[in-house]
Amino acid sequence: MTKFHFDGAQIPFEPGDTVAAALLRNQVKNFRQTRFNNEARSLFCGIGHCYDCLVNVVGKGSLRACLLQAEAEMQIKSTLGIDG
Fold this sequence. Notes:
Layout: E1 2-6, E2 9-13, H1 19-25, E3 32-33, E4 40-41, E5 54-57, E6 61-64, E7 75-80
């Protein structure tokens, strides 16, 4: 099975999955935290209109997990300090 890395954990995914789909399937529900209150954020709209699902892709910056195609061996970290 193909996997990417999220905060050090290996996340398996199916071909065609977005990063958000793979994270949710693997019970990962906290994609980022807000900067003022450290409130957890996850998938909200699921179609790229909001920014609740921002993740930090090493080498690419902050991207919306709901629009991001999962790729083998991606290095992704939860995003800290962004309000949305």
